[in-house]
Amino acid sequence: MPGFKFLNSDPRPLALEATWEEERQKTQRKLEERERTMLFKTLLAGVCLLSLSGAAVAQDKPASISDSEWARIKPLIDPAGVSWNPYKGLAVKKDGSPYRVLYLPVWMGDDYQVVAANLAKYQLEQAGAKFTLISAEFDAQKEAHFIEDAIATKGYDAIIMQPMDPGALAATVDKAVAAGIDVYDWVIPARTDKLTGFAGYIADAMDANGQIGQVFTEKAKAAGATPEKPYRVLEIWGIRAAPICQDRHNGMMKGIGDNKAIQVIESVDTAGQPEAEIKAIQDAFARYPDIQAIYPQFGDAGAIIQGLRSVGRLAPIGDPKHVVVILQDIDKAMIAGLKNKTFDYTLSNEPWHQMDVAIKQFMWHTVLKQPLEAGDANSGKVKLPKWVQLPMPLLTGETIDTPKAHMWGGTIAFPEMPLGKWADWPVLDTRSIGLPTPTMADRKKLLNY
Q: Which of 138, 238, 311, 406, CA to CA, is 20 to 30 A from 284?
């Protein structure tokens, strides 16, 4: 398999190579299928935007981006701060060989993961790195095996991953780092101080998912809810065994506190699958027809629309039949739903900004050999931060297209960007957190090649 160098003393290489190639091909097929679906939805949603693309071309438009795409992209970014293809040729060693990166997502079943994987692939390959993607498909043991195999084959310089189980994978991450493989986590961190770098969020905090519980508290008070006649919230679980889902639930409950006027009705596990989410809504409303709010931990926003329609409760804000909906993982259907007032809020954490930081950490540390520093990146006092905890703004249909939804020169509403045209997505301006964009000039200055 390309990218591997097998040791003669290891009896497993041929079998392991075949297994990895099979897993890589399965993951690639799933990625291509999901990307085709995502592009189809984007074309349907964006046809009106494309018809209005006759705007004048700004001088700061990259030559590689068409005039019509620039008219669409420019309101979503800060052209003066971001950059396109700054890493070109950077991730190549002095001997001319590429840096090798193993990318391990938890699954490839939604827009969130497809965007992250494709941005990582495009930017790393532009830099000259060798990129390999294998999906764990919500299987922590499988993810651990992939890391163990990467250690055994000595085939990688770095791993970029979202840990399915941060506690269970900590020891395996430690082994990888001890073996000379840099490990960068995104979304949530493995529970080890040996982690090379992290870019993500902490969901079980008041300024994260606690905001969801606070909204429900305000809605319950406005509705005059009491313990005898509570404000009922349907929480649609993703996977109870997944720490990320547990953190999201715990964060919401922190925001609710001991408020007995709110009753949280928890669904069975849905794994974010549309059919399971629709059924969860139908089952809950059959038992509690007066449900007033829904919080799905993740999944396709289109399933929430279909589920509410099936129980006769799909109605805009202000309609007596309206159900308050707070969504988390942004997708195309969510943005449309926010703007037409089907949905009330999104608590945003999204892939573009997280992956931008993870790639920069890889470039500065693995490629340019610079140390990443501990400390609060958001203080602006840390140079090349090891730990970047992204904020999670609570957005509405009124704020999704405003500066409140922008960070580091790019929109948080990532599906508004041209999905599938990864070369059009710029590298963001993260200088405010002590993480400038590295270039070939930095490599020449630091490593003299």
A: 138
Domain end marker among 294, 319, 347: 347
The pTM assigned to this predicted structure is 0.85
Q: Looking at the structure, do residues 309 and 416 belong to the same domain, yes or no?
A: no
Q: 419, 111 in Cβ contact below 8 A?
A: yes
Residues 381 and 339 in one domain: no
pLDDT in tens, the chain (449 residues): 333 333 334 444 455 555 656 666 666 665 566 555 554 444 444 433 333 333 333 347 899 999 999 999 999 999 999 999 999 999 999 999 999 999 999 999 888 999 999 999 999 999 999 999 999 999 999 999 999 999 999 999 999 999 999 999 999 999 999 999 999 999 999 999 999 999 999 999 999 999 999 999 999 999 999 999 999 999 999 999 999 999 999 999 999 999 999 999 999 999 989 999 999 999 999 999 999 999 999 877 999 999 999 999 999 999 999 999 999 878 888 999 999 999 999 998 899 999 999 999 999 999 999 999 999 999 989 999 999 999 999 999 999 999 999 999 999 999 999 999 999 999 999 999 999 999 999 999 999 99
Burial class (CB in 10 A: 0-12, 13-18, 19+), 147: buried
The answer to whether residue 4 is domain-embedded is: no
411 has which bridge partners? 406
Structural domain includes residue 140: yes
Q: Are residues 47 and 156 in the same domain?
A: yes
Range of the domain at 376: 13-201+350-447
